[in-house]
Amino acid sequence: MTATQDRPAQADEMRTMTLIQAVTEAMREELARDDRVVVFGEDVGARGGVFLATAGLQAEFGPRRVFDTPLSEASVVGAAVGMAVRGLRPIAEIQFADYMGPGFDQIISQAAKIRYRSGGQFTAPLIIRTPSGGGVKGGHHHSQSPESYFTHTPGLKVVMPSTPYDAKGLLKAAIRGEDPVIYFEPKRLYRAAKGEVPSHDYIVKIGEGAVRREGTDLTLVGYGGVMPDVERAAAALAAEGVSVEVIDLRSLVPWDRELVLSSVQKTGRAVLVSEAPRISNFMGEVAYVIQEQAFDSLLAPVGQVAGFDTPYPYVQDKVYLPGPNRITAACVKALNY
């Protein structure tokens, strides 16, 4: 558990980067550090991916380490599983999270099960990187947030950073781990999220959340693309005299129960924010754990702000996404309960 923003001490080593630059740098450093690391997917080679996350990597490390694949997500994930079982450290890119369907069986039936099925003789330390979420007017085939499918699958780790520092540190931790990791990248923050990243090597431990803002009246919990709006809502409430604690989960499986519970036990109120549809939303699990383990501390029902249970709308994405107004309204409701 961590109660800070994990800022390293060496301020003279810090650079300002975007989230996508941090992702690229993590891959570049790990390709250089470990010759078992390979990067592949649709258009990731010469073009550098549709969002240019892998730009320049093929030129630097060659087509045997960074290469394009056919337009087949099942083949991409299947190849990653085979490589991982044979000792490589594959980083497979799925062009959009919406396209993970064809590789779903390979993920949940093979990658997630191989350690248990083999009695620990084999592991599949692979990373599936994929741009996720809305906010860029991509429509219903390029804007979904399918993380709950994978948080429901034992054997997988699932992460979603919201800052450049976390993006780099979590990706490095995933590459160096022994488990399959689904690494969601909130595409609307690729170039919008900027922050300080150290030049020295570091990791962010998977499973640890971060307190972005300390408070005493209410706990706001989010992850990924919603975090800027969560922090805007907290700032608006602070201007009215409400002290809001903001927690960024960063990691969904495992998630930092201790951090969330300790905060809710302090504040007595919780509002949970994500952009995935409300039904079977991962935050429902967080809400259940809060009421199960911190019920006596609650001063109001746990609130949840999420996307709507509809296909993602192309022209009304700002209405669909949880913005500061919807988040603030849910907080006011909890405060007035």
Automatic annotation (TrEMBL):
SUPFAM superfamilies reported for this sequence: Thiamin diphosphate-binding fold (THDP-binding), TK C-terminal domain-like
Cofactors required: thiamine diphosphate
Pfam families according to UniProt: Transket_pyr, Transketolase_C
SMART domains according to UniProt: Transket_pyr
Coiled-coil segments: none
Keywords per UniProt: Oxidoreductase, Thiamine pyrophosphate
Keyword ATP-binding on entry: no
Database matches in InterPro entries: THDP-binding, Transketo_C/PFOR_II, Transketolase-like_Pyr-bd, Transketolase_C
GO molecular function annotations of the record: oxidoreductase activity
Ranges for domain Transketolase-like pyrimidine-binding: 17-192
Record protein name field: Alpha-ketoacid dehydrogenase subunit beta
Gene source species: Deinococcus oregonensis
